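Why should sequence recovery work at all? Because a backbone constrains its sequence more than one might expect. Tight turns favour small or flexible residues, buried strands favour hydrophobic ones, and helices have their own preferences. The token representation captures these environments compactly. In the example below, the structure is given first.
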């Protein structure tokens, strides 16, 4: 495969983010599988809280972020789990995007948690992606007890690392998959129009 572009969006703003560490591992695997990769660190973007009355072009770096996502063949979304869902910086970034960025695009999901498995965060991200007619990779990476999952920036558990590496490989493998028919959710998703 050539010219496959994989972009990862890190929904964590922490300096010592385990989400970012895990996404970097996934991107390295995607690069080894032949893709060009980019980490979109939301700390580097000015993204005001979403306001539907504000045009994306007038909302800080929202238009620039959306353009970089549109250029990707696969988008990896990574987030810590907060209160049973994914983080607000990622939610804001996704709210500034819509069908132009996600429809018929392959998306991979990764979530981390300081405690139990971040299953609901993954489910919520999957629901948003299906509402935008993205094709979500069945394989996903869940990292529980994230503060003990890494030591000196590397995974402690090789099986967990393998799950994240596999996500990066699948990001390349399924980058050009034939998309599913439109989902019911997307038909009802009027909030994403013109975004």
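From this structural description, the recovered sequence reads:
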């Amino acid at each position: 495969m050539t010219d496959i572009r994989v972009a990862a969006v890190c929904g964590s703003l922490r300096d010592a983010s385990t989400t970012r560490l895990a996404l970097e591992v996934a991107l390295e695997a995607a690069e080894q599988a032949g893709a060009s990769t980019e980490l979109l660190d939301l700390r580097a973007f000015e993204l005001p809280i979403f306001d539907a009355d504000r045009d994306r072009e007038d909302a800080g770096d929202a238009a620039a972020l959306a353009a970089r996502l549109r250029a990707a063949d696969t988008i990896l979304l990574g987030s810590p789990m907060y209160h049973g869902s994914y983080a607000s910086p990622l939610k804001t970034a996704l709210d500034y995007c819509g069908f132009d960025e996600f429809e018929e695009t392959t998306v991979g999901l990764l979530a981390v948690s300081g405690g139990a498995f971040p299953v609901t965060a993954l489910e919520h991200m999957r629901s948003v992606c299906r509402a935008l007619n993205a094709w979500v990779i069945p394989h996903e990476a869940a990292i529980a007890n994230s503060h003990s999952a890494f030591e000196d920036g590397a995974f402690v558990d090789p099986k967990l690392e393998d799950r994240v590496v596999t996500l990066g490989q699948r990001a390349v493998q399924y980058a050009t998959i034939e998309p599913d028919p439109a989902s019911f959710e997307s038909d009802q998703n009027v909030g994403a129009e013109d975004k």
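A few observations help interpret the result. The first strand starts at residue 5 and ends at 10.
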